[in-house]
Fold each of these.
Amino acid sequence: MSGFIVNRGYGEDEHLGGNILEGDPHTYSPTVWDYLIKRFALHSVLDVGAGMGYAANYFHRAGLQTLAVEGLESNVENSLYPSLKVDLTRSSVQCRVDLVHCQEVVEHIEEMFVDHLLQSFACGRILVMTHALPGQGGYHHVNLQPPEYWIEHLKRYNFEFLSIDTHRIRRMAEQDGAIYMAQSGMVLLTANVCRYNLNRTRLISVTLLAAQKRRFCSDGSDMCEQPAEQHIGQSGIIRRVQFCGFFPEMLP
C-alpha cells in the first residue's frame, strides 16, 4: 500500500482507524455487492466500520437505504457518504436492515468488546464480513481468528453460515481484486427472520452537523423533507446526519 495515507487514531482513540484515506482498492468489491443485492433482494444496509464511506456510497447509489457507522472522528468528518460516529468498544448499533456489511473491522475489536460488534451484526437478516487470520499483520490487529471462531460466536445470535454463497463471493472478490473478501469473506443468514416487523417503519432524517457535508436522499436529490429524529446506539444520538428513506423500527 505504498503511497497511500492511513487514517489512524491517537491517544484514547488509538484503537480506531487503520483505513486508507483514498479508499482501499483491496476492499472495493462491487461484483460481490451487486450479487448480494440481487441474491437477497436487499433494500437497506448498515455498513459497520465504514471508513471514508466508499462502500456506503456505492450501496446508496445502487438504490439501497444506507446507514454508515464509523468510530474515528476524522473519518466521520470527511466521509464521502454521511456517517454516524459509533465506537464499538463503547456501544453497539441498534437498527433493523436487510444487510450488515463489515469489511476489515472485526480484527480491530478486542475480545472483551466482541458482543458490541455481534449485537451490531444482529441488526441485519444477512451479514457479509471479512476477518483477519492468525499471523496476519496490520495496524491494531488485536483479534486474529480462524473463521470457526466467528461462526461459533454468531451462532449465539442465531446466524447460520451460508457456504455456497460464501464460495461464490470469494470467487467474485478475487476477480475484483478485493483480496480480503477473497481470502476470508463470509455470508451468514439469521435464523430469526420472522422477528423483523417490516410493518413498523420510521423515516430517518436527521440534521447533519458538518455544515459543509452534502446531504443525500434516496431519490438522488440533495435535500430531504419530513425530518424525524431517531436514536442510533445505546448512548442516544451519537451523530446527527441527514438521511432519507424508510428503515424498519429501531430498537428501544
Amino acid sequence: MKPFFVTLIFLLGLSQSGATQSSELSPLTLPAGDSQMFSDAHQLDASATHRSGKIAMVMSAILPGWGQLYLGSRRHAVFFFGTETAVWSARTWFKTRQHWREDEYKLFAAVHAGVDPAGKSSDYWSNLQDYYTSDDYNEAQRRDARLSDSAPDHLYSEAEGWMWASKEKWYTYDRLKDEAWKNERWAGYMIGAALINRLLAVVDVARLARHRREATSELHLHLNEDIRNPGVQLSWIHTY
C-alpha cells in the first residue's frame, strides 16, 4: 500500500520583546462551515469502512448488487442489478414461448392427428412426435416385447390412438415440439446464469469490503510549544 500524505502547516505570529518576555500560542480556529464539512466527510469514511463485509456478501447472494449498494458502490450495484433483471426477463420470455409452443402443438395434434389433448402425459406427446400412427407405436412395443420374451410395457387403446393426416403435418408437429423443448432448455440455462451472477456478485463484494478495510484515514494535530518557533501542524494521512 502507498501512503498519501497531505500536510497543512499553520504558523502563528510571535511577538517577542525580550528573552524573558513570555509568549502565548494562539489556538487554531476553523470557520464553522469548514469544520462541519470536514467532520461530515470523516464520519462518512469511517461509516463505510466499518460496514460488515459478511453481511454484504449475504445480501449479494440473495440479490446481486444489494451488497454493493450497502457498501456504497453504486456503479457495481447498477451492473449486478441490471444483469439480474436481464437474466430473469430472459427466463420469463423463454418460459412464455415454451407455453405458447406447447399449446400450439397440442392444438395442432388435435386438429391433424385426431387426438384428445385432455389428460395426456408428456410421453404421449413425445410418442406423437416419434410415430406416425398409434398402430406403429403399438407394433414397436410388441416387437420389443417378443425380443425380450416379455409382455409389452404399454399399448394405446383405440380411444387414445392417432393418425397424422400427412407426413407434412407430422413434420410440422415435430418442429413445433422441438421449439417448445428448446425454449424450455434456455429457460433452464437462465437459472444457471442467475447462480453465476450471484457467485460473481459475492466475489465482487468481498473485494470491495477488503478494499474498504485497507483504505483508512488518520488525522494528526501537532502543537509546537517551542516559544522560539511556535506553530500548529495539521496532517491528514490516507492509505489505500
